[in-house]
Amino acid sequence: MSAGGWWALVGLCVVTTALTRGLGPAATGGRELPPAAVRVVLLLSSALLAALVVTSALADGGELHVGADTAGVATAGLLLWRRAHVLVAVLAAAAVTAGLRAAGVD
Question: Which of 88, 97, 89, 84 is closest to 57 using CA atoms?
């Protein structure tokens, strides 16, 4: 893709982000959302992050692939579930992934 194409893509992303960020306040008209809707909105970011992590950890060119990176994500998830510090989980995930890749697991 040419440099102009990349800049057009960046511009399209800027416009799309601006429109979607402004759509919520415009649709509500300054009114407060019901408490149930606020709880759903608060959970959406976590769900989106989880979907991105799962997609990144399991997808490899359009097919399901379990490998070293999946083991690293599972390690971090397990440690976070057991209330480990985030830095410990990240370092453990990196160590597991690097160790498995060094051992030849793809």
Answer: 97
Contact between residue 73 and residue 93 where contact means Cβ atoms under 8 Å apart: yes
Q: Encode pLDDT of 19-32 as tens digits.
A: 988 887 888 887 88
Q: Residue ranges of the domains in the chain?
A: 1-31
On the question of pLDDT at 80 being above 80, the answer is yes
**What end-to-end distance do the CA atoms of the chain give, in Å?**
29
Q: What is the dihedral of CA 70, 75, 80, 82, to 10 degrees?
A: 140
List, in sequence order, every residue forming a beta bridge with 4; answer none if it has no partner: none
Q: Check if the beta carbon of residue 87 is closer than 8 Å to that of residue 79.
A: no
Q: What's the whole-number mean pLDDT along residues 54-65?
A: 77
